[in-house]
Amino acid sequence: MSIALTERAPRSLLKMFSLIVGCSVVAGSAALDLHCNSDLQQGTCAGVGQDETSMDLSAAAEDTSLLQSWQTKKTLTLEAAAQQDEGPVRGGHGAEGDRKLDHDMSSFQTSAEAWFHGGGRVLPSSPAALSVLETFRVHGNSSTVTWSVFAAAAILVGAAVFWASSGSATALEGEDITADRWWLIVMSGVVQMVAGSVYAMGAWQDALRDALGTTMDGISLIGAATFAGSLLAMLGGYAFDKLGPKAAVTLGGTLCTLGYLLIGIAVVSADLLTQPVKMSLAATGAMLAGYSSVSLLDNVVCMACSLSFPDNRAAVVGYLKAVLATAAGLWALLWVHVFKAPHGPGLPAYIGFVASVALGATIFSLGGLRILPAGPSRQAFKEADNSRLGTLIFFLVTLSFYDVGVSFFYSRGILMPTSALGYVGIGLGLLPLTLLQARSEEQKPAEQLEPKTLLAPGPQSEGVTFATAILGLDFWLIWLMQFAVFGAGVATNQNLALILESAGSPSASGLGVALFALTSSLSRIAVGILSDKYSHVISRFNWLTLVSACAVAAQFLVSIMSFGAIMLGTLLMGLSFGAFFTVIVPVVNEMYGKKQFGIIMGAQLASQAAAAFLICLKMLPTIYKNATPPGQTSCHGESCYRMSFLLLTGINGVGLVAALWLQQRNKDSMPMDRLA
Question: Measured between alpha carbons, how far is residue 97 from residues 294, 345, 550, 614, 639 in Å?
Answer without folding.
Answer: 36, 21, 41, 32, 24
